[in-house]
Amino acid sequence: MLKKSKTTFLPGIVIPSLIFIFGVTILSVFFPNRTEYYLSIVKNLLFVNLNWLYVMVVTLFVFFLLFLFFSKYGGIKLGTNDSKPEFSFFSWISMLFAAGMGIGLMYFGVAEPMSHYTDPAFGQASSIQRAKNAELYTFFHWGIHAWSIYGIVGLSLAYFTYRYRLPLSLRSCFYPILKEKIDGKGGDIIDMFALCSTFFGITTSLGFGVSQLSAGLVYLGVMDEVTFRSQIILVIIVMTIAVLSATTGVAKGVKFLSQINIVAVIALMTFVLIFGPTVYLLGSYSENLGYYINEFFNLTFATHTYEPEHKEWFFNWTILYWAWWISWSPYVGLFIAKISKGRTIREFIGAVLVIPTLFNFAWMTFFGNSATWLDQHTAQGALTKVANNADVLLFEFFKYLPLTPVISLFAIIILVIFFITSADSGIFVMNNISTKNAMKSPRWQLVFWGSMLALVALVLLNAGGLQSLQTMTLITALPFAIIMLLFCYSLVKGLFIDNEYYTRPLSHSTSSWSGTYWRERLDRIISYHGKSDINQFLSKTVKVAFEQLAEAFKGNGIIATVESSLTESPHHVEIKIQHENMADFMYGVENVETAVSDYFRNEDNAPDIEHQRTYIPRTYFGDSRKGYDIQYFTKDEIISDVLKQYERFLSLSSDQKNEIFLGQNIREED
């Protein structure tokens, strides 16, 4: 027999995505300047007029995750309650770190602090204050705010995938809102957006990264000059290894390379610490961290409205970073969700927000503060002169440390591994999106995505269209930020239902059950009632019980009245004992409509129910407490339950500290 399908690609996702990718690529290749011009206009309009929206959205992400961390929902697992993590803690941290920001640290570890240090916007400050501010803003851009963006997407995906058993796909994050509609066209559009965003993000990073790698090889004398031919060779090498890594799976190739990476960057950072101004760096790390914590709220909400001289810097750095992290979040979020099964929400948030942030802070301090210190004391301003040339700045920095050729080569090796880990995890994620998390895909699909990344990156490098692609990616960040807000809403809704499901106690009506009437109980449990059934229960059982109880109260000198409405909505019966000087006692039962899950109605091996709506008799009280279902009560059990509530009422009323509630009737009359 012939196989029905030789691919797991979903045409509704892949074909429109490829059309859009090729369309944007063609515009960027044949009309790079004009495309960049118009895209830049749109980007600037967004950054200038809606920068406050970027600030507020990212701020909300930070505090939303902190709320979940400290809330009762933090103990919920990303999976079944007995699920275990798939990867060790070290492997998990290594992979999420490598996929999230690894390559950026190599590029910006020296470049960003030096750029802030030399920026004219801060030129009036002293050199010491400029050095402190350089680290402060670098911490801000690479810290909790950045990782909270990744955390929102990653947590939403992991929760709905492993807790709700939905596909590892962005569409799954809308399940509480759209239900089964996520499998339709709306879900395809969401996944198309994620696929294109991931493709463009990795392509631009690959293109710019190859430019830095080429410049470093020329700087070290390995190559005479940067040529397109040399860039082709570099891209082919990187992507070949990346494809081989991706085809071995996350648990093998991606995990292995990520672990190598984290060990290598720790070794490089330790080298800079030992052979740089060690005491100064350790002291500055503590001071930088304290300065960041002290300025956290000012940084978080700042839009520089009162500082027009800082506006351009703000748009070109902070807002651009927020847009860039948001545009990368589908890719990084999908990947860290993939590797986070079995973690609790609190563990996930704590690890994603804190551990990479502290490492980034250490990296930026050791590299950035070393660079500013060397520039002032050893290089005599030489690093300042090349501060705008990020491609060679890292290697220029290494000139002022021992073993320059060795450490520069080691940095290039790390850079290559970072390229590979970013690319292989990206290939894996893109195949995941395009197949809606198919259990197993043919290897040629991974080769296809790797080849596409390499081809588009090289074409754009040759034509000078990478900037256009990057600008378009930044523009898409704002609409995706709105989608992320909906993720937050869906997550809250899902967590609320989750918590209620696992913490809901037994029905109040079961507290007095014994095995005496178990057959009658079973008949009632598996029966679902219409409005007329419950009205009949109110009339023949509840009302009769209340009337007998009222007679008994009267025999003890207490006047109780029974009121009912069984012909006009709302249908109810209640017994009331009125008081002059304190609150009234009331116990009522009303006919309440409830919804029945479609899953339950369509299940063959469950009680039969034809309609989506059913009705229950639910209690209510004079003090507005939450009522409960009493449909299983007999007449005597209803009388018993009313007496339990009346005994509670008398106990509370006799307690002097409850006088604030007892005077309710008097205050209302006044």
UniProtKB/TrEMBL annotation:
Molecular-function GO term, any one: transmembrane transporter activity
Stretch forming the signal peptide: none
Residue ranges of the TM segments: 12-31, 51-69, 89-110, 139-162, 189-210, 230-250, 262-282, 314-336, 348-366, 406-434, 446-466, 472-492
Record's GO cellular component terms: plasma membrane
Main localisation: membrane
Alphabetic keyword roster: Cell membrane, Membrane, Transmembrane, Transmembrane helix, Transport
Domain of life: Bacteria
Subcellular location: Cell membrane
Coiled coil: none
Membrane topology annotation: Multi-pass membrane protein
Family note: Belongs to the BCCT transporter (TC 2.A.15) family.
Name of the protein this chain belongs to: Transporter
